[in-house]
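Limitations

Structures in this collection are predictions, not experimental determinations, and the ligand pose is part of the prediction. Treat each record accordingly. The example that follows, with coenzyme A as the small molecule, is included so readers can see exactly what is and is not provided: the inputs are given verbatim, and the output is the predicted complex.
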Amino acid sequence: MRYFLAAKRDGDIVGFLMFVVWDIGPNDRDHPPVQMDGNTLREAKIIAFGVKEACRRQGIGRALQEYTLERAKALDCYQVRSVSDMDHPENHQLKLSMGFAVEPMERAEPSLAFIMPLSQIEK
Ligand SMILES: CC(C)(COP(=O)(O)OP(=O)(O)OC[C@H]1O[C@@H](n2cnc3c(N)ncnc32)[C@H](O)[C@@H]1OP(=O)(O)O)[C@@H](O)C(=O)NCCC(=O)NCCS
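Predicted complex:
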């Protein structure tokens, strides 16, 4: 399932975030599903995220990320995850300032994975 969030100001879209909800493991990694107590765990994977240049540093990106955490929790996801290449330091700073865990990844290009477990997030 795919979800699209839009941040609006005065009727204009000033930011957006898209995520998918799927089983942890088999979808974008060649890995069997991860299970807990016999149930396959799901995640919200953020696949696109941006704020209009003129509207940055006003808290819109953080609000979109926080809403995603709440929605993912309500959708019974175990975690929220994203992967970002090294060209987006502002995205990295945002994720780190929110308390996401970070994992450098070995891919064709260096990149960082960010993961937030949802056990601590209130519904
Ligand atoms: C990443 C992005 C979405 C952040 O949106 P934003 O609305 O500007 O973010 P916020 O205003 O909510 O910032 C929250 C925090 O993130 C950090 N941050 C955001 N931009 C930063 C920057 N340019 N430099 C350093 N820290 C930054 C800060 O900690 C900031 O808190 P503060 O303003 O109180 O210091 C925006 O910069 C963007 O669209 N970048 C280009 C696209 C992109 O990188 N997309 C993600 C990867 S595909």
